[in-house]
Amino acid sequence: QVDRSEVIKSNLNPVFAKIFTVDYYFEEVQKLRFEVYDSHGQAGVGTHDDDFLGGMECTVGQIVAQKRVTKPLFLKYGKFAGKSTITVSTEPAGGDSGVTLSRGTGAAPNPGYGKSDPFLEIYRIDDDRSEQLVYRTEVVKNNLSPIWEPFKVSLNSLCSCEEKRKLRCVVWDYDSRGKHDFIGEFFTTFEEMQKAMGENKVQWDCMNPKYKIKKRNYKNSGVVVLLDLKIHRVYSFLDYIMGGCQIHFTVAIDFTASNGDPRNSCSLHYINPYQPNEYLKALVAVGEICQDYDSDKKFSALGFGARIPPKYEVSHDFAINFNPDNDECEGIQGVVESYQSCLPKIQLYGPTNVAPIISKVARVAADEERTKEAS
């Protein structure tokens, strides 16, 4: 058990507020099981008296690809739990967009002994009020009006992708022994920083609370100006999938003689009646992951490097179901069956020439781009 929702009392159509955060790995089949109980104990605390109402299994990939999955609840031994269903929806937990803060300038006060060596630190204030250092600028030596270099930071890191999250910015006078002198600080948000986009600039008074108490006419310990801000949207793989992107999965199998005679147990193509050979293991491992993201579950399955019937000429691009008009198989199981029936009919040969199949798949992709189907 990873987590559990809150208990919703006396409700046959509960909507749970609890959000479960799951690490998502595209390259793995991540199986999940959801179980629903009628609680007889305290809220949120499981007891042995709770009645099992049904469960559902799926993969993280299925939920991500469909955004919203509704499935029937099953009791033990595969029986339906009446007409009960469970609906699970998903959203990505924070993007990876970047922000460039260009040329922050600070007018630092004279501490009374020549010019200071100012640098700036930005802290994100988290929900538990703890502070996380987001960025520290370089030190500008011997300067009361420093111009710091532009820098990039991810939006997740800067403000957890929440524009109104508070940020604390502190200006220090650098000291080589590490005992930096506090010049002043100010609070802001990413929402406020965005006003620096385009021709505008944003400025903040850099305040030192100690001086504010001591000096009656104290205004600030200098001003920090943000001259420019740019937002760079970085699209993650998840963004493409949740935007409706489908993956067209094509299998190409190497039937060259270097794999060894399929009748020999040392061959990667060994026809083993008791367990899958190396090619089948690889095919299922990769295919089971990709099939969650392909709506029609039809996979082109091709072979290269073999002599094929009826003339037994070498081919570097043939359909393993021997249907030149339609090389697609139904699901990964269809590819497995076509491979198993094709293997005894061909002669492993050579050379290892992958280019024809890569060119063929590239042409199909280019055609889809022209027809705009891939959008």
Automatic annotation (TrEMBL):
<dbReference type="GO" id="GO:0005886">
    <property type="term" value="C:plasma membrane"/>
</dbReference>
<keyword id="KW-0106">Calcium</keyword>
<dbReference type="InterPro" id="IPR045052">
    <property type="entry name" value="Copine"/>
</dbReference>
<dbReference type="InterPro" id="IPR010734">
    <property type="entry name" value="Copine_C"/>
</dbReference>
<dbReference type="GO" id="GO:0071277">
    <property type="term" value="P:cellular response to calcium ion"/>
</dbReference>
<keyword id="KW-0963">Cytoplasm</keyword>
<keyword id="KW-0539">Nucleus</keyword>
<dbReference type="GO" id="GO:0005634">
    <property type="term" value="C:nucleus"/>
</dbReference>
<keyword id="KW-0965">Cell junction</keyword>
<feature type="domain" description="C2">
    <location>
        <begin position="1"/>
        <end position="73"/>
    </location>
</feature>
<keyword id="KW-1003">Cell membrane</keyword>
<keyword id="KW-0479">Metal-binding</keyword>
<keyword id="KW-0472">Membrane</keyword>
<comment type="similarity">
    <text>Belongs to the copine family.</text>
</comment>
<dbReference type="InterPro" id="IPR000008">
    <property type="entry name" value="C2_dom"/>
</dbReference>
<dbReference type="Pfam" id="PF00168">
    <property type="entry name" value="C2"/>
</dbReference>
<dbReference type="GO" id="GO:0005544">
    <property type="term" value="F:calcium-dependent phospholipid binding"/>
</dbReference>
<keyword id="KW-0677">Repeat</keyword>
<comment type="subunit">
    <text>Monomer. Interacts with ERBB2 (preferentially with the tyrosine phosphorylated form); this interaction occurs at the cell membrane and is increased in a growth factor heregulin-dependent manner. Interacts with SHC1; this interaction may mediate the binding of CPNE3 with ERBB2. Interacts with RACK1.</text>
</comment>
<feature type="domain" description="C2">
    <location>
        <begin position="82"/>
        <end position="205"/>
    </location>
</feature>
<dbReference type="GO" id="GO:0005737">
    <property type="term" value="C:cytoplasm"/>
</dbReference>
<dbReference type="InterPro" id="IPR037768">
    <property type="entry name" value="C2B_Copine"/>
</dbReference>
<comment type="function">
    <text>Calcium-dependent phospholipid-binding protein that plays a role in ERBB2-mediated tumor cell migration in response to growth factor heregulin stimulation.</text>
</comment>
<keyword id="KW-0597">Phosphoprotein</keyword>
<dbReference type="GO" id="GO:0046872">
    <property type="term" value="F:metal ion binding"/>
</dbReference>
<dbReference type="InterPro" id="IPR035892">
    <property type="entry name" value="C2_domain_sf"/>
</dbReference>
<dbReference type="Pfam" id="PF07002">
    <property type="entry name" value="Copine"/>
</dbReference>
<dbReference type="GO" id="GO:0005925">
    <property type="term" value="C:focal adhesion"/>
</dbReference>
<protein>
    <recommendedName>
        <fullName>Copine-3</fullName>
    </recommendedName>
</protein>
